[in-house]
Amino acid sequence: MPGQRPFGAPSFGRRPEITEPEFGRRTIGNIRLDPYSTNYAFREYLPSGPLAPTELSGHLETTCPTINTLYFPTRAQYPYRTNNYWYGKIMVSYHSPTGVAAWTDLKRSLKDDSLPDYLGAPYVKTINGRKYWYDQYRIGNDRIHRYVGEDGPEMRDRLSRHEAISRNREQSRKNRSRLMRILRAEDYLVSDVANGQAVSAMAKVGVFRLGGTLVGTQAFRCYEGELGVRLPLDQAAMTLDIDIASFERLSIALDDVVDRPLDEVFRDLEFEPVPTLDPGKTWKWRQTTRETLVEFLTPSFEEAEEIRSLPALGVSAQSLHFLNYLIAEPIQVPFLYRSGVLVQVPRPERYAIHKLIVADRRRNRDLKSAKDLAQAEYLIGILLRDRPDDLREAYETAMDAGPAWRRHIASSLDKIPSVREILHLTESSSK
Q1: In terms of CB atoms within 10 Å, which of 143, 238, 246, 330 comes out highest?
Q2: Which of 243, 252, 259, 266 is CA-nearest to residue 308?
Q3: CB-hemisphere CA count at 13 Å for 331?
Q4: Quick one: pLDDT band at residue 237, thresholds 50, 70, 90?
Q5: What is the Cα–Cα distance from 300 to 184, expressed in whole angstroms?
Q6: DSSP secondary structure string, 161-176?
């Protein structure tokens, strides 16, 4: 009934009774749900009288008013997995097991393929308390040290299988093409040519290997595979901006550089440097034929947000406050272009909380700010259901970072009170 609080957590109020009617169907409130159906929609406002699941979903999509609260049962309260549920005005729809499996296999194959064809003498180097793998080999009289990746169980396993990976590289490439065909058939969002060419070219010369992290809407689109959900078109619509962020200190400490200067890479793709107020410090390039814009960013730890240098990438970067939170502990995911490109993106829970900060920091509270809030709201709703511990940790980390962080987050949450209630709930549940 209108005004009835949703269920899914004790703080949201008393949940409706679940009874066992005839033929094994379950009734939640006045909705009859078929345990074999996957097209369920959970809404605050329900039509009068029982409806079969197919009738219910069609009715809700056309006649029910929208709500501002998350409405779904926990697995303990309702044992059948649902593929769809309503979050605010948005129907959250999960991809099929086939699509999820194909995306996971693609990620695994791209990670294996990230190793070079030949390894000389791999060794571990400790930088600021963290361990990184390098490959050492000679070219003439020169000894080359090439950064491979951060140490961890996955990296050690991959290095131990290097010979087998190298032998099967061509077959793996063909398999990735097959997996991409599956993902296209499953309606995963794939990149357009302009963005795909630019991201692929940067990956090929080592931008993501050397700490570059894809941020912004390009990263948001990658969460479709990471979270296994279909993204709303208005939030995931193709953007002409490609934002790459990296830590300046990491770029210096790695002591390695991209395989080819990026200004040459961009020139081949018909990009031209965008003039800046600091001569010789180029941090963004614009494509002359398609208007695609590539920008490089780095965290600012000073009062002023100045232009800084990223030696590993051979470019300058615009420094920004709060960016260190976003790109800490990034994850590797496939960028869906051609047979797949391995990129780094922020963790989705950090991306969501960071968007709350960015939305309030924008000088002109325009459509970009509204898009920031929409992306944050959508991700937080999904993460509450699927990764509540990760969401809570990301939120608490940001809130503990200082008063400026809390002020920006609170200001954004005033515009989306339903999310404020969710985040306060996750915070209180940890105490």
Answers
A1: 246
A2: 252
A3: 18
A4: low
A5: 39
A6: THHHHHHTHHHHHHHH
Paired tokens of 194 = 């302009």
pLDDT digits (tens, 9 = 90+) for 150-175: 899 989 998 888 888 888 889 999 99
Task: State both tokens at 186.
Answer: 């499953």
Query: What's the pTM?
Result: 0.78
> In degrees rounded to 5, what are phi and psi of residue 141?
-95, 0
Residue (of 326, 353, 356) closest to 243 by Cα position: 326
Long-range contacts at 248-251 (CB < 8 A, ≥ 24 apart) = 248/298, 248/299, 248/308, 248/309, 248/310, 248/317, 248/319, 249/128, 250/211, 250/312, 251/210, 251/211, 251/298, 251/309, 251/310, 251/311, 251/312, 251/313
Q: In the numeric block, which tokens belong to residue 244?
A: 């790459």
Q: How many whole angstroms from its chain centre is CA 149?
A: 20
Q: How many residues does the chain have?
A: 431
Burial class (CB in 10 A: 0-12, 13-18, 19+), 84: middle
User: Alpha-carbon distance 308 to 297, whole Å?
Assistant: 9
- Per-residue pLDDT of 410-423, as tens digits, reads 999 999 888 888 78
Classify strands 213-215 and 142-150 as parallel, antiparallel or unpaired.
unpaired
Q: Which two tokens stand for residue 387?
A: 């990764």
Q: How far is CA 67 from CA 51, 83, 110, 425, in A?
A: 20, 19, 41, 18
Dihedral of alpha carbons 293, 189, 382, 69, sign: positive
Q: How far apart are CA 369 and CA 411, in angstroms?
A: 12
Cβ pair 166, 302 in contact under 8 A? no
Tokens of 160: 């131990």
DSSP element (H, E) containing 422: helix 417-429
If you search the block for the tokens 């991809």, which residue do you land on? 95
Give the side-chain half-sphere CA count within 13 A for 212.
32
